[in-house]
Structure formats: structure tokens, C-alpha cells
Amino acid sequence: MKQKWKRKSYKGAVFLMALLFLSVSFNHVFAQPDYAKWGKIAVEETDKNYPDFDLVNYEYQGKVAIADNREQYTFLFTMDQDGTKKKVRAYVLINPAEDQLIEVQFEDMASSSP
To answer: Are residues 11 and 43 in the same domain?
Structure first.
């Protein structure tokens, strides 16, 4: 009888370890990067500021800590209006301590025709 109990507990432990490994793996795979929330805001604000352009490409360019209560996320957007491409850099300034948006600023980059 004792040996059956040991086998069952061994199988149970293996099952629990596999379940734990899978849950950690799935959480890692489906976890959003820390910039995703601010990227969504950058897209929305860019759409408001450039309503005649279609978003073609989105590139996260990094985060800079400015002070304890200020961080800046930078995104580069490539947009198109009737074949004319325009690049715009969006700077999303946040307060990380309160997870709050401070402002979004834009910098027009190069434009090009086909």
C-alpha cells in the first residue's frame, strides 16, 4: 500500500511541476511589453493630430528616465497620404510613480513621395 501512495504523489508532483511550468510559459508569451499601454496612447494621439494620414508602420524606440517622476517613451510612425510617406516621432511623457500620462509631443521627420 505504501508504494502505491509514493507513485501517486510522484505523479502528482510531476503534474504540478508541468502545470506550473506551462502557466509561467504562457504568461511570458502573452505578457504585453511595458510600453504597450503608452504605444496605444501614442497611436490614438497621432491619429488625432494627423487625421488625413494612414498609419503604415509603428516602431518603439525606447524609454528614457528623466527624473524619479518622469519617463519618456519614444515611438516612430510612418504614415501615408495618397502615396506620400511621412515619418513622425511621438514622445509620450509619463509619471511612472502614478502610471499617469503627462503629455504627448510630436516631431515631424522626413516626407517622401513614391
So the answer is: no
